[in-house]
Amino acid sequence: xxxxxxxxxxxxxxxxxxxxxxxxxxxxxxxxxxxxxxxxxxxxxxxxxxxxxxxxxxxxxxxxxxxxxxxxxxxxxxxxxxxxxxxxxxxxxxxxxxxxxxxxxxxxxxxxxxxxxxxxxxxxxxxxxxxxxxxxxxxxxxxxxxxxxxxxxxxxxxxxxxxxxxxxxxxxxxxxxxxxxxxxxxxxxxxxxxxxxxxxxxxxxxxxxxxxxxxxxxxxxxxxxxxxxxxxxxxxxxxxxxxxxxxxxxxxxxxxxxxxxxxxxxxxxxxxxxxxxxxxxxxxxxxxxxxxxxxxxxxxxxxxxxxxxxxxxxxxxxxxxxxxxxxxxxxxxxxxxxxxxxxxxxxxxxxxxxxxxxxxxxxxxxxxxxxxxxxxxxxxxxxxxxxxxxxxxxxxxxxxxxxxxxxxxxxxxxxxxxxxxxxxxxxxxxxxxxxxxxxxxxxxxxxxxxxxxxxxxxxxxxxxxxxxxxxxxxxxxxxxxxxxxxxxxxxxxxxxxxxxxxxxxxxxxxxxxxxxxxxxxxxxxxxxxxxxxxxxxxxxxxxxxxxxxxxxxxxxxxxxxxxxxxxxxxxxxxxxxxxxxxxxxxxxxxxxxxxxxxxxxxxxxxxxxxxxxxxxxxxxxxxxxxxxxxxxxxxxxxxxxxxxxxxxxxxxxxxxxxxxxxxxxxxxxxxxxxxxxxxxxxxxxxxxxxxxxxxxxxxxxxxxxxxxxxxxxxxxxxxxxxxxxxxxxxxxxxxxxxxxxxxxxxxxxxxxxxxxxxxxxxxxxxxxxxxxxxxxxxxxxxxxxxxxxxxxxxxxxxxxxxxxxx
Length: 806
Known about the structure:
By secondary structure, the protein is mainly β. The protein has a 22-stranded antiparallel beta barrel. Strands 11-12-13-20-21-16-17 form a 7-stranded mixed beta sheet, with no helix packed on it. A 4-stranded antiparallel beta sheet has the order 6-5-8-9, with no helix packed on it.
């Protein structure tokens, strides 16, 4: 524009390009005089024109070029400054300080983009900064439907508890827990009251007496059917991810379906304000994570992890190997054969994930996510005369697109399409024959989610949604001697309509969340309504009462055909409900109270849970009911207590859980008896010290032993051992010895020229206690006796690790 004015009026303008580049105004009318055009430009910009000599002008801003352009980001409601926000203008990126202050030396673009965690994204004109002093920029909260936090540090730094009972884990802020060198999501989950693993694995997490397949695990809305590495000893989710994990033991949102127990939602869609690169390694794996702002509107997160057990058998790996492979096909052969058997295993795992965020503007954001998880095991065993090989592979791949829209301060929506694939495949060659067995379990899951939220007022929020989900499950078995083949495939289509209502009282002391999920299962021509409810009421400052109830269902579950399925390492396969496998239905209710004051936190919660439609094949019986299929239910009545106290840099906590968990199968005698996953009493405690980069944690876990069924007598047929029979006592009428574990962790962090270095170590089961986690009985064909077979938990297991962040 200035070039045109220069030609039209035969004048010259001198200027600094950066000072005028951000201004954009319409051309003044041609008939105006030179002075009128200059006056027009000065009126619409912060530019000033000074005549230095005839027909020459200097153009400059009306503030000193030596001073930076600056502003303050201010919370619209509280008036306080907003720290750690990312401000982008052109190629320049800066962050706000603790007071919300930021400055840029010059503006290279006419748009200023501001991203701050918990606030609506803001785009404004950079020319607004061209004023004397600094501009105040007000930002609005991003509305979330979660309740207030009652404990910012729950068990450990990085874990918080909402007043409705929801637990939030943020690995990037994670402190330390006994026995862990990194924030393993599912290992951390087992520290929570009411959550245990009866066999010490993350692939068998029992929430209030339920089985692992009754828990729903979502990663960015993608259902995960494989949640572990190393056949259950490590979480499959990279702990370096900038993620947020929400755990619902009861009262889950109506948007969650297909689970009769807990729900775990992992999201990597968390704002980050600066580029960050992280590398970590311990005695099991090496991992990395990169969070990069590609532009003002584009951000990328990439992470990956791989074990090196196929290259280097560390002491930690050997301890894990002994725990997993005991009493499996891999070890049973060596024990049962009279001739020496030599074997070797080649094992590795990896996981990779990607999250890409593109903001079209401050209202519309597109997320693209992908994840890949793999476990691979190859075994070879041989005698002097023969050899055999076997393999076991687990894969889970998923992808998703999410369109997130914030139409204004009152209307929000998101649309998601997703796909998830899971495969478990095993192959085994018999050592003493030419028999070859192949097994495969495959799941394909795809769907569409539509969600809409309407904020009528800050006190009344309405939600609605629709969910279309298709599940395809295939089970394949093939044996060459004797020749046998089975290939079963089932497909289920589900339509779900969702409604939700959230109310907050004027004094914010009472909050009510009501939801309803209506499922129509096309395969079964069945409609099920699932109400959800949470109520929180602040009795007084620091004292909160919580009530929760829900009904849920699921059509997909895991069953055990034979205890030696998939080499005996993985015994479960996914199946859809059929004639002999009903749809599972659950009813839960709980009431709790929490108290916080002067560093104290105390919670108490009682609960009731009933799950109908379970099959005996899903419960892992190894007694008189192992081969007797039946359907039934279980009921759990229990309570959970936790006390936590902070003393300056030291804090400690102790939790206690009790549950009375019983089966009922009409076709069994007796029909009612203890649940296989019943743990009557469990206590967890820890003392943690954190100061100046040093973190120490010492903790204990104690629980009563698992239920078991002892033999009463046995009948041995020496001529035909196959006819030998064990006569059992009443099912689950006794239990194993108590399980006790003492764990320790330590870490130290240093900042070296902007690089954060952390070294850590941990020891699981410091006193190397032999904990029997399961026991079954079998006929010893050689000695014509009945022998017990124990499975032991991890012995003493050290680990060391290092992490670098820059």
